[in-house]
Amino acid sequence: MANDKVEKNKELEWALIPPGEVSQVDGIVLEKNICNSWDKIWNFEAKPDDLLIASYPKAGTTWTQEIVDLIQNNGDIEKSKRAPIHLRQPFLEWVRTTNSGIDQANAMPSPRTLKTHLPVQLLPPSFWEKNCKIIYVARNVKDNMVSYYYFQKMNKGLPDPGSWDEYFETFLSGKVVWGSWFDHVKGWWKKKESHPILYLFYEDMMKDPKREIRKVMEFLGKNLKEEVLDKIVYNTSFDVMKRNPMTNYINDVKMNHRLSPFMRKGVTGDWKNHFTEAQNKQLNENYEKNMADTSLSFCMEL
Ligand SMILES: Nc1ncnc2c1ncn2[C@@H]1O[C@H](COP(=O)(O)O)[C@@H](OP(=O)(O)O)[C@H]1O
Ligand SMILES: CCc1ccc(OS(=O)(=O)O)cc1
């Protein structure tokens, strides 16, 4: 009974939080807090041994972050449980009244691992000047859209997505936070030609996690034994990460995990449970047009 009351109170408190406000930087929709701190973010001083994990939101960022942290710690599970993921690897552009990703990063000893959802053209120039290693993870547009819809529903840091039908149109227009999925994945893909970027795909990680983890290990210049790699595969599986309080954002008051958990389904092809036939046709046509100028290709089902 007492627990029921606590849960009900939490629910009421969450419902009273206003949804996130947005503004724009160079035509890209971003949280208002981020836009208001833009000079500080743009002028961030990267260091040559910084590692950056970049992605469009909901592409498998947290999964990649945990893989990287375990590789850096030679598969030591307890070390990777030292703190929640956003404290181990600061979220570069994240801004709250009392704290920010930039302040966290500046207070951190090197070598640092940072995370960003910024499109390539908005990445602070010091990352290019210092030639930092970057890992980018991308996910097929259909599953990415569904995952982002549920995230905007449960996360008051972002605007309310409205109905699924409304969100479908907003997402395709590119007027979502962090901008157009198409421009994001293509922009980072192109940058790969001139900069050390390991470009990963969520679907490849689903299909053969050990192969993809090995790629990350080699990119980081590490050499771990097979049994350590197996341990990392196991501890970064969806079921294990769902039970890990350090990868779940459980203490983020803006997130309502009862509405939709942070670790939601972790599958490829969930879009089939959400897209109408007409939406699928519209998206496929849109995809053909938008992806005509890139060699980048995605797998929509496994
Ligand atoms: N270990 C893992 N294996 C597979 N999917 C994972 C995963 N960890 C997180 N995810 C999925 O990645 C998405 C979140 O991505 P991000 O970390 O970029 O926010 C969610 O997708 P779903 O909403 O489709 O379940 C989440 O469930
Ligand atoms: C606004 C709070 C927020 C936004 C995006 C986040 O990242 S992720 O897409 O889940 O990796 C986390 C928190």
Could you explain how this protein is built, in words?
The chain has one domain: Rossmann fold (3-Layer(aba) Sandwich). It is 45% helix and 11% strand. It contains 16 helices and eight strands. The termini are far apart. The relative contact order is 0.16. The chain binds adenosine-3'-5'-diphosphate and ligand LN4DG7MM. The site of the ligand CCc1ccc(OS(=O)(=O)O)cc1 has 7 residues, from helix 4.
Mind sketching the topology for me?
Layout: H1 2-16, E1 22-25, E2 28-31, H2 32-36, H3 38-42, E3 51-55, H4 61-72, H5 77-80, H6 85-88, E4 95-96, E5 99-100, H7 101-106, E6 113-116, H8 126-129, E7 133-138, H9 141-154, H10 164-173, H11 181-191, E8 197-201, H12 202-207, H13 209-219, H14 226-235, H15 238-243, H16 277-290
Parallel strand pairs: 3-6, 3-7, 7-8
Antiparallel strand pairs: 1-2, 4-5
Bound molecules: adenosine-3'-5'-diphosphate and the ligand CCc1ccc(OS(=O)(=O)O)cc1.
Adenosine-3'-5'-diphosphate (A3P) is lined by residues 55, 57-63, 143, 147, 150, 236-238, 241, 263-266, 270.
What is the CATH superfamily? P-loop containing nucleotide triphosphate hydrolases
What is the C-level CATH assignment?
Alpha Beta
The number of distinct structural domains comes to: 1
> How is the largest sheet built, in terms of strand order?
6-3-7-8
- Number of distinct beta strands: 8
Give the rounded overall mean pLDDT. 97
How are helices and strands ordered from N to C?
HEEHHEHHHEEHEHEHHHEHHHHH
Family: Belongs to the sulfotransferase 1 family.
Main location: cytoplasm
Catalytic activity: 4-ethylphenol + 3'-phosphoadenylyl sulfate = 4-ethylphenyl sulfate + adenosine 3',5'-bisphosphate + H(+)
Domain Sulfotransferase: 48-294
